[in-house]
Amino acid sequence: MTLDPEDSKLITLARASRARSGSAEGAAVRDETGRTYSATDVALEALKLSAVQVAVAMAISSGARSLEAAALVTAGDGPSAADEAVARELGVKALVVAGPDGTPRS
How far is Cα of residue 61 from the mean position of the Cα atoms in its chain? Predict the structure, then answer.
């Protein structure tokens, strides 16, 4: 699979976030102005959010109105239905999923 260089950058940001915190997932999104946001999953007793959900929340709370792209780095099976739904709602046609080594799976 060949990715656009900007989408490859999202994978790099997601990998770096995941590695920094030792989290199960890392995600990154790019908004309509080209700004990027990266995040990891949140797994507290009182709050559980996927990395995609946190990255999207960061973008929206910073004023983004839509997303151009989203990437998820995980050793797991891939994005949840909720991750795919939130990405679609904001205009992402396909959520890019990569393994921990950065190799795209979809």
Answer: 16
Q: What is the pLDDT of residues 91-103, one digit of tens each?
A: 999 899 999 999 9
DSSP code for 104: B
* CA distances from residue 40 to 14, 16, 47, 52 in whole angstroms, order as listed: 8, 10, 13, 8
Predicted TM-score (pTM) of this structure = 0.94
3-class secondary structure, 46: coil
φ, ψ of residue 93 in degrees (nearest 5): -75, -40
- H or E segment at 51? helix 51-61
Angle at CA 93, nearest 5°, toward 22 and 35? 60
Helix axis angle for 51-61 and 81-89, nearest 10°, is 20
